[in-house]
Write a structure and sequence with these properties.
This protein is an all-alpha fold and 218 residues long. It has eight helices and no strands.
Length: 218
């Protein structure tokens, strides 16, 4: 079956990663009280099911089963609503506005100038940031309304001072997942420079394939 015609469910990569994290946590003995209901809530928790942020099972269940968090909290509601609104603003007013310029550029390739493409590249840069970080803010904000505190997924990535710094700031939950479940299990940087380079190459290769089943992402 040609990959470009393969139909996949929405969010399949995110809840697949979550299930891998669950299996590893069980194997390591980190989930002594995790039952079927806990598993289903962890996998199907709706704010993050499509695009994250990815969360550790033990971290999620600790909050899920904390009786003190199962009470109405106006502070959580207000801060969550504020964060959700900020994410919605970034998605609808910023990302979608930049997207119009990007769509025009890709739809008018024969009419664009070099300066047009510089502006289009900048617009695309901000479009993907405000789109994804806006969704993450909305998911984290909805979680906050229910009493869940998830980690930030973007930490001003365009203020990074190096490629390594950017990697640590952009889609933090994904880079952390690849570090903990691919890079470190392969050996990380504990076995010399050649092994370290091989681990880095394999991790980034997996991350590229994760982003899409086309040669471009590979």
């Amino acid at each position: 079956v040609p990959l470009q015609y393969l139909v996949l469910p929405l969010g399949i990569s995110f809840y697949t990663f979550q299930q891998i994290a669950w299996l590893v946590a069980v194997q390591r003995g980190e989930l002594e009280d995790g039952g079927l209901l806990d598993y289903l809530v962890y996998i199907l928790y709706f704010p993050k099911i499509l695009m994250g942020p990815l969360t550790e099972p033990s971290e999620f269940l600790a909050q899920l089963n904390d009786e003190s968090l199962k009470k109405w909290n106006w502070e959580n509601l207000v801060s969550g609503l504020k964060l959700f609104s900020f994410g919605l603003f970034k998605k609808l007013l910023l990302a979608d506005t930049f997207a119009k310029a990007v769509s025009w550029g890709f739809g008018s390739i024969s009419e664009t100038t070099s300066m047009d493409w510089i502006l289009i590249m900048l617009c695309y840069t901000f479009q993907i940031y405000f789109d994804f970080s806006g969704y993450s803010d909305m998911a984290i904000g909805m979680g906050r309304m229910f009493g869940f505190h998830f980690r930030e997924n973007f930490l001003h990535p365009y203020a990074a001072t190096s490629v390594r710094d950017f990697w640590r700031r952009w889609h933090i939950s994904l880079s952390t997942w690849f570090r903990d479940y691919v890079y470190i299990p392969l050996g990380g940087n504990r076995h010399g420079i050649v092994r370290t380079c091989l681990c880095l190459f394999t991790t980034m290769l997996a991350a590229g394939i994760w982003h899409g089943s086309t040669w471009m992402f590979l």
